[in-house]
UniProtKB/TrEMBL annotation, chain A:
Highest taxon of source: Eukaryota
Organism ancestry: Eukaryota, Metazoa, Ecdysozoa, Tardigrada, Eutardigrada
Gene3D superfamilies (UniProt xref): 1.20.120.1750, Zinc/RING finger domain, C3HC4 (zinc finger)
Family to which the UniProt record says this protein belongs: Belongs to the RBR family. Ariadne subfamily.
Native species: Ramazzottius varieornatus
SMART domains named among the record's database cross-references: IBR
Protein name: RBR-type E3 ubiquitin transferase
Molecular function as annotated in GO: ubiquitin protein ligase activity; zinc ion binding
Keywords: Metal-binding, Repeat, Transferase, Ubl conjugation pathway, Zinc, Zinc-finger
Reactions it catalyzes: [E2 ubiquitin-conjugating enzyme]-S-ubiquitinyl-L-cysteine + [acceptor protein]-L-lysine = [E2 ubiquitin-conjugating enzyme]-L-cysteine + [acceptor protein]-N(6)-ubiquitinyl-L-lysine
Domain RING-type as annotated: residue spans: 122-331, 126-170
Main enzyme class: transferase
Automatic annotation (TrEMBL), chain B:
Span of domain UBA: 163-202
Residue intervals of the UBC core domain: 6-156
Organism lineage: Eukaryota, Metazoa, Ecdysozoa, Tardigrada, Eutardigrada
Record: active site: 94
Protein name, entry field: Uncharacterized protein
Family membership noted in the UniProt record: Belongs to the ubiquitin-conjugating enzyme family.
Organism for this UniProt entry: Ramazzottius varieornatus
Length: 521, 202
């Protein structure tokens, strides 16, 4: 971010939701024997400090940075802005790259010479519309290419109509210089187009700046700034929507933006295929080819290895000899169907063409395992949101009946909030674990995950007890849950850092599936 | 928005320029308005020398959008051509300057020169026609002779490809439509049995 923007560096913990449940450190040595004294809000791995900004304030941030670069390098505001966008608003980088790059496409020194050359002829021909114009009617971009003002206007209009803002290049056939904002402002005359252009370029400025984020809700004109941008939760103070600061999608820690995108895509793409394969195919117990049974009886003969087996119990068919076509693990009805089908000897077996069927099957099973848990938690989360509403009603009723004030029942609300928070966290640990490589770090992570899971199930059960609930037990469970949630997130962060180092060492980023991102892509 | 008037003024100038320029040796034969309409033109180019298209004459169908020259012209081959970057069915051309890399200062003459250059140096990694492109990569000599055969048949190139002509004649004698036979044989890598299966399944 720009120097001199100190106003925006002071970050306060606006994250009301996150700060809501700050376990107080007065209670020590709980039943699970852990000292919680050092757990405070600062150590919460999910905590994130950011401040919300208005449209005007963001404009001010942009202006300050542009002015800084403009003055330092003696450029037009348009060129300065383009450079900042390209360098992701790192002012130091911008100045440095520009100085190193003095001979490249942005070089104004060369352009300046072109600009100041004495023009001998008073008339010249625009090479776009082929009409001869006086020099006053011609306009030259920073690259030195000159076309008539009305052509520039038509061109800019058509580019803006296509949705472009940043990245409109010169009209010359061999020139790829980006046209600066000041030039567009001067030569684009159509009002609505100009407004659209301003919106487009403003959006690009926000999106290319890692420290800025905007509320993804339609028509919500709210922006956020963080001096330590990270893929953490932002709650919009205007529309109350909650999202990831970096990618703007649903908040997804401990998964990083890339992992969760990969997971969402996988869940979308594979929804049909995986359920079909799991419900319609089995592996040959002998050679492990995937087999789709598309009709007939349960006596299968594998086309690959000629092994004969029973579709139901996957045992060798020979053991079924005496009770032909009847498998003892079969239920009565299906057994009857099978006997009825006995006349039909023809069995169709299609081994699916796969190179390493057992590996494929394993991968599928692994995916289904994680998917099922992901969906379970999603479902629980929905149910517990209802529970939260019930708690709310219950507390209201009690207050109305003069059974204590709102503060007396606050612990119940806190418990509900904590439950939701941990449930969400658990849901997103499944994609995270899915992409983890096997090894000790995965084992540790899954151990922590299991601990949180069991605590949460207990907590959920206790809260549902209603009036019979044991307050002391509930509070102990809450502390336990909070402690375990933090442990889990700390571990996830650790794993991501290790993965980061591994990538740096291996210099092979594609190989590590669990990537991490602290800045906007 | 840019008045079509401006596009028409420019087109008239472009037509005049191509007419007077001595581009003939470069392979640009002509550029003419179709039925006197300035938004629909016909360009003619020569197949580049030392390519399978040598000696062929190729007709281009050029449509001028109202936003021209701020939007690129829509150009496709009216003459059938066997080339990785040209659809063997529709004649659509895959060329960067006709899409994203168009610049308002480019002209129809530069477009025609680029298309002629594309004929001479195909870019198989950015294909328009997947069948042709894969043949170009895996069986270059078959690609060359197919392209030459198409040039002879559709673009009046002087060279002959007797064995292909024979295969076509053989299948036409079975009662199939000649142009279907040519297409199907080309797409099947000149395997008569395969082409037969496609033309007459079962």
């Amino acid at each position: 971010m720009a120097e001199g923007d100190d106003d925006y560096y002071d970050c306060y913990d606006d994250d009301a939701d996150e700060a809501d449940f700050a376990t107080t450190s007065e209670e020590l040595n709980l039943d699970f024997g852990v000292n919680l004294k050092n757990i405070d809000a600062d150590a919460d791995p999910e905590a994130f400090s950011y401040t919300s900004l208005t449209h005007e304030e963001v404009k001010q941030i942009i202006r300050t940075a542009v002015e800084f670069v403009r003055n330092k390098l003696n450029l037009s505001t348009g060129v300065a802005k383009n450079l900042l966008i390209e360098n992701r608003w790192n002012t130091e980088d911008t100045v440095q790259t520009f100085r190193q790059d003095e001979a490249s496409k942005h070089v104004p020194s060369a352009f300046a010479r072109l600009r100041n050359r004495t023009v001998s002829e008073s008339m010249s021909e625009c090479s776009v519309c082929y009409t001869t114009k006086t020099r006053d009617n011609m306009a030259e971009n920073t690259c030195g290419h000159s076309f008539c003002a009305s052509c520039w206007n038509s061109y800019l209009e058509s580019q803006v109509a296509e949705g472009k803002g940043f990245g409109i290049t010169c009209m010359d056939s061999k020139c790829d210089v980006n046209i600066g904002e000041d030039f567009v402002m001067e030569y684009l005359t159509d009002g609505p187009s100009l407004q659209k252009y301003e919106r487009n370029i403003f959006r690009t400025c926000v999106e290319s700046n890692p420290s800025l984020s905007h509320c993804p809700t339609n028509n919500c004109d709210n922006y956020f700034f963080s001096s330590q941008p990270d893929s953490k939760r932002v709650v919009c103070d205007k529309c109350q929507s909650s999202f990831c600061f970096v990618c703007g999608s649903e908040y997804h820690l401990p998964c990083c933006c890339r992992t969760i995108r990969q997971w969402w895509k996988k869940v979308m793409d594979d929804a049909d295929t995986s359920s079909y394969i799991s419900s319609h195919t089995k592996d040959c117990p002998n050679c492990e080819s995937s087999i789709e049974k598309n009709g007939g009886c349960n006596h299968l003969i594998c086309r690959q290895c000629k092994y004969e087996f029973c579709w139901v119990c996957l045992e060798d068919w020979k053991s079924h000899g005496a009770e032909y076509y009847v498998c003892n693990r079969f239920n009565a009805k299906k057994a009857a169907d099978a006997v009825a089908a006995a006349a039909e000897v023809a069995t169709v077996v299609i081994p699916l063409a796969v190179n390493k069927p057992n590996v494929r099957r394993l991968a599928l099973n692994k995916y289904l395992f994680y998917l099922e848990r992901w969906k379970n938690h999603e479902q629980s989360l929905r149910l517990e949101e209802n529970l939260m509403n019930q708690i709310h009603d219950r507390v209201q009723k009690k207050v109305q009946n003069r059974e204590g004030s709102l503060i007396d029942w606050q612990y119940l609300m806190d418990a509900g909030k904590l439950l939701l928070k941990c449930r969400r966290a658990l849901q997103y640990t499944y994609p995270f674990a899915y992409y983890l490589e096997d090894g000790p770090s995965r084992m540790l992570f899954e151990h922590l995950q299991a601990e949180l899971e069991s605590t949460i199930e207990n907590l959920s059960f206790t809260i549902e007890q209603g009036d019979k609930l044991d307050v002391a037990a509930l509070q102990a469970q809450m502390r336990s849950a909070e402690f375990r949630r933090r442990a889990l997130f700390r571990d996830a962060k650790e794993i991501k850092t290790t993965a980061a180092q591994a990538i740096l060492q291996a210099a092979e980023p594609q190989k590590t599936i669990c990537s991490f991102q602290t800045v906007r892509p | 928005m840019s008045a079509p008037n401006m596009a028409f003024n420019r087109i008239q100038r472009e037509l005049a320029e191509v007419a007077k320029a001595s581009d003939a040796e470069k392979g640009i034969v002509s550029l003419e308005a179709k039925d006197g309409r300035l938004d629909h033109l016909t360009g003619v180019i020569k197949g580049p020398p030392s390519s399978p298209y040598e000696g062929g004459t190729y007709v281009l169908d050029i449509k001028i959008p109202p936003e021209y020259p701020f939007k690129p012209p829509e150009v496709k081959f009216a003459t059938k051509v066997w080339h990785p970057n040209v659809s063997s069915v529709t004649g659509a051309i895959c060329l960067d300057i006709l899409r994203t890399n168009w610049a308002a200062a480019m002209t129809l003459r530069t477009v025609m020169i680029s298309i002629q250059a594309l004929l001479g140096s195909p870019v198989a990694d950015d294909p328009q026609d997947a069948v042709v492109a894969s043949q170009f990569k895996t069986n270059r000599s078959l690609f060359d002779s197919t392209a030459k055969y198409w040039a002879t048949t559709y673009a009046d190139a002087p060279s002959e490809v007797p064995e292909m002509k024979e295969k076509v004649a053989q299948m036409v004698a079975m009662g199939f439509n000649e142009s279907d036979v040519r297409d199907t044989l080309s797409w099947s890598g000149w395997d008569v049995a395969k082409a037969l299966e496609k033309l007459a399944p079962e």
